[in-house]
Structure formats: C-alpha cells, structure tokens
Amino acid sequence: MSDARTPAQIEADIISRREQLAVVLDEIGVRVHPKTIIGDARAKAAQTVDRTAGRAFVAVNRSVSEVKAQFVAEDGSPRLERVIPAALLVVGVVGLLTVSKRRRT
Prior knowledge:
Elements: H1 7-32, H2 34-71, H3 80-104
C-alpha cells in the first residue's frame, strides 16, 4: 500500500480544509461580536439575579413558614397561647412609640 496521493486528492483535501476553516472563522466572528458578548453578559447577569432571587425566596418562605408554625397549629387553628402574648407585645410597643412621639411634640 502506498501513501502517495494524487494531485486531485490533495486539492480536494485543501478545499475541504478551507471550508472547515471558513466555518470556524465565522463561529469566532459571531462569538467576538459586541452584540454577542453583551447578550451573553446580560444572560449571565439575569441568571445570577434569578438564582439569587430564588435563594432569597426560599429563605424568606422558610422563615415565614417557621414563624407561622409558631402561631398556627397543624390543623390551621390559631395557637392562642402564643398569639395573645405576641399581640399584647405589639400593642405595647405601638403604645410606647405613640406616647414617646407625643412627648416630643
């Protein structure tokens, strides 16, 4: 078996390589185009914001669920032994703020 190629085979290989190179250069041109770079940066930023917002939502949802579990029983009824003291505390704080504001004016 000889490795000798004919001029036609060599020319066909050269044409094939040129076509492959043209495709690669077109791909590089698209990748380095400013619009492509800006679009990629925007997509990455949006993905980061979505991920951060998702994590924040999960954390807030977990906290709300934990607080709700303190004041509401599993059957949905309020836990009066916890609701009443919390309500009294809120009323007391609002009352103190109101009194202190009236004294300032």
